[in-house]
């Protein structure tokens, strides 16, 4: 069992935009009055293409799929929220809080993922959307997975339901470690991957956004599973997406910690050195438009593809 993969999926946006429906529970989004919708899309597309190029230049296998024109899916650049793949052969699809995001679960994309990963089982959790009181679990936005130790870290929020989380854990054999964490306005933070990242030998985590009653539980779980804990601050998390990182590897087996340029520039020299000790490369990518208008960063743009072992 490995924590990282060298194959990822990224969705090329055709209608990227601020999504007011999603913004109801994502205080990281900003409506940018100084840009036309066309400019927002054009800049986001340039940022996306640059990110793909830089990842490929470092030897990561990047599969890209272009979103259909006029699909009405302004957040499609963040595919990690609606599916995940697992080395045991499962594809999991998730219940999404925003109705427009449910349209991202296109059958032709699902079939491509199944083929790429040789998935033998499709665990469909979207039935939670159809319940009398719908609940949600937005993929590896809601879940930060320690794949080796089978631990699912989850900050409870309107997008991260304990009921749906337990169903995931029962199906895939994970243990849940849950906590409350708070965003810039004191609200429950919308996605766990905004404030923490778990790598193979380390974890980057903003402990000071976690409720005081839950901090020791989270710290103990991370350290008990052998991770070096690299702390980031509330300000780095809320203002610069410093927790929204992902460790991947390249075809040569070198480890790469991927983050946005905004996150990189917010980090101290000591933090960077500690991260570099666990990775052959720190890759930082400029995605300012995607971060501001979309309220998500580079980790959200990367869906890991784990081929069945």
UniProtKB/TrEMBL annotation:
Superkingdom in the source lineage: Bacteria
Any Pfam family the entry gives: DDAH_eukar
InterPro entries: Amdntrnsf_FN0238
Protein name (record): Amidinotransferase
Organism: Pontibacter lucknowensis
